[in-house]
Amino acid sequence: xxxxxxxxxxxxxxxxxxxxxxxxxxxxxxxxxxxxxxxxxxxxxxxxxxxxxxxxxxxxxxxxxxxxxxxxxxxxxxxxxxxxxxxxxxxxxxxxxxxxxxxxxxxxxxxxxxxxxxxxxxxxxxxxxxxxxxxxxxxxxxxxxxxxxxxxxxxxxxxxxxxxxxxxxxxxxxxxxxxxxxxxxxxxxxxxxxxxxxxxxxxxxxxxxxxxxxxxxxxxxxxxxxx
Length: 227
What we know:
The protein is 44% helix and 21% strand. It is of the alpha/beta class.
């Protein structure tokens, strides 16, 4: 990992410098933006591999930027939220952010989150050669990373795609929350139920048929074709 292009968006110069310094030390190429408008332009012009996006921005705030970018791009997004602000975390995840880091943060935590999110966006050789997975009218083309339902394409963020793929390869099997968190997000995310709950909510919204994602109270979740 390393060498990928990261767009850092924050109106506080000290945070931009912290992000830039530590990610560049990790081998990443970093572009900085201080406003939401600038961030949206840079996403379109430079197509970064990942964006680190602060919630509190002048003009367009981070939530608005996240919403606009998610409509136009599958660029992974890590939101920077205020310490203890659960509402901001959930709102960002519901708008399509892939992860969040709370301020103030350590350099190690930020780099670890960036590495984890980028790792989820990469497809290994076995995935590229695998056949399409079908669950009812839901189809996942693993080579093209394309999802269709009844022939209509469903646009998913990288994290949503990984979550759906994980559940689809275990279709009909109930997976616990920790199993899903570990397999999709990584071992460091074990116990972070909120991030999974919101991702499943977004997946159901995009599929337009919540019968595919089945909840087994006290046990976990599974993907199954509607009866």
